[in-house]
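Quick one, tokens below. Sequence please?
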């Protein structure tokens, strides 16, 4: 039998239900591979012993009616997990152990899943490269010293390296789709309100959304079924009929109208991404879809609006970390001194930068000039999509303006880093669903992704379109396990 870690999520579910593999065998396989892969720095906290015990418990009384019965899974360290450390990639939460479970991770447990660990991420999900984590850079398994994207970089790295059969991330401005594109994996940002935000460490509350990260579209459809639910504990959760995304998955896109926005043909975009986009368009046409040119005229204002709205909400959300109730506390001569030292020492540079920006745009005299104006622009961006969807069923764009870059390459240039989100940010501002799928490689062999954007709560359509592209594009990830070889060399010294 092939290495268990080579099997995808749906394959593993099928093998457990057919009793060809046990939960213990699968869990051991992914734990053993994770132990050999420390160079990637994908994990912040391991839960290996508890996971093995849970796998044994499942095997003793297997419930094969679950959607992911006995399947081990590592998750982004932004989800609160009961009795398991949750840091959000920050020093200030270094020793925080939640007494409750996030709704999304609880859904995973309720459907038979087993949590094997917590994955690295940019501090408080603020970053596009996973270089802002207090726990160090994450390596992209595609190539050494390459960023895995962010903020869900630990999730994308662990998934691409087959340390977990699937995982979950959060997406505030592209933090699922961009790392998926950088690592040759599939990442879906659902419609805002589809997956509960309860128990997710907040960055920007009107933008944050949890979503699945998987090896292919089938696995993505299954994991979305597991994750998505209405939750009374989340005031932004939307009560709608969730689909049977996997069962209804189809590559038949005949008659579907796919929009191509002219504003996404940005200056300086590499020719290889243009070619990839054209390849996706051709696949859609060849499979019976209609391609229609559309305009999203306010796209150019999306990044400026986002980098006002998101920091403003972040400055409000992160005000709770004061060293009093929980988390890191620094010693001070008095209460004010303690507050100042705690926040100065507990937050990293990028988090401080965004708190300061957010505080500024919300301050007296600047609220109307910046924050209020940004919210009005956000409305215009949403209106652009509403108008487009009167003509089309979905929209096709590149996922990112480039492939993964080297660690340290953009760390000292925040504006250049922020530009990585140029194709993903508008979707978060509009609250729409979008999926990134691997579609090709650049001249260095690094992955490139295509993005399919859908109407609100119409995840099924974008899953189907992505499935059709996936089946026809013939993508294969080029990974040689260089990090495991490194471990073996060290052991032989």
């Amino acid at each position: 039998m092939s290495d268990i870690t080579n099997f995808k999520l749906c394959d593993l579910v099928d093998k457990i239900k057919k009793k060809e593999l046990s939960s213990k065998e699968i869990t051991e396989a992914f734990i053993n591979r994770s132990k050999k892969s420390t160079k990637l720095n994908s994990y912040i906290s391991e839960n290996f012993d508890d996971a093995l015990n849970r796998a044994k418990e499942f095997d003793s009384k297997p419930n094969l009616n679950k959607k992911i019965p006995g399947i081990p899974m590592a998750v982004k360290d932004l989800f609160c997990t009961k009795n398991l450390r949750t840091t959000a990639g920050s020093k200030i939460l270094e020793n925080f152990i939640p007494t409750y479970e996030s709704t999304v991770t609880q859904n995973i447990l309720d459907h038979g899943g087993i949590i094997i660990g917590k994955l690295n991420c940019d501090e408080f999900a603020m970053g596009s490269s996973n270089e802002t984590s207090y726990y160090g850079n994450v390596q992209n398994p595609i190539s050494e010293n390459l960023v895995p994207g962010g903020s869900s970089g630990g999730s994308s790295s662990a998934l691409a390296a087959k340390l977990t059969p699937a995982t979950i991330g959060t997406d505030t401005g592209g933090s699922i789709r961009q790392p998926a594109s950088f690592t040759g994996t599939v990442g879906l940002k659902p419609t805002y309100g589809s997956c509960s935000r309860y128990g997710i460490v907040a960055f920007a509350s009107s933008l944050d959304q949890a979503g699945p990260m998987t090896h292919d579209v089938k696995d993505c459809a299954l994991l979305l079924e597991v994750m998505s639910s209405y939750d009374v504990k989340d005031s932004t959760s939307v009560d709608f009929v969730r689909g049977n995304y996997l069962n209804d998955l189809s590559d038949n896109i005949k008659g579907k109208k796919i929009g191509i926005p002219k504003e996404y043909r940005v200056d300086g975009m590499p020719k290889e991404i243009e070619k990839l986009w054209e390849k996706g368009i051709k696949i859609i046409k060849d499979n019976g879809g209609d391609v229609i040119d559309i305009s999203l005229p306010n796209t150019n204002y999306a990044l400026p609006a986002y980098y006002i709205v998101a920091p403003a909400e972040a400055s409000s959300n992160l005000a709770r970390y004061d060293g009093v109730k929980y988390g890191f506390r620094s010693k001070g001569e008095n209460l004010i001194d303690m507050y100042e030292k705690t926040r100065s020492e507990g937050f990293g540079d990028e988090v401080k930068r965004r708190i300061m920006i957010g505080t500024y745009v919300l301050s007296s005299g600047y609220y109307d000039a910046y924050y209020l104006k940004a919210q009005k622009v956000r409305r215009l961006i949403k209106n652009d999509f509403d108008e487009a969807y009167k003509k089309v069923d979905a929209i096709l764009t590149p996922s990112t303006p480039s492939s993964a870059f080297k660690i340290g390459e953009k760390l000292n240039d925040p504006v250049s880093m922020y530009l990585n989100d140029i194709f993903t940010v508008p979707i978060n501002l509009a609250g729409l669903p979008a999926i990134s799928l691997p579609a090709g490689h650049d001249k260095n062999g690094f992955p490139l992704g295509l993005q399919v954007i859908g109407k609100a709560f119409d995840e099924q359509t974008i899953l189907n379109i992505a499935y059709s592209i996936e089946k026809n594009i013939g993508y294969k990830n080029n990974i040689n396990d260089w990090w495991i070889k490194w471990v073996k060399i060290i052991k032989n010294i």
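Residues 367-388 form the longest helix (22 residues). The chain has 16 helices and eleven strands.
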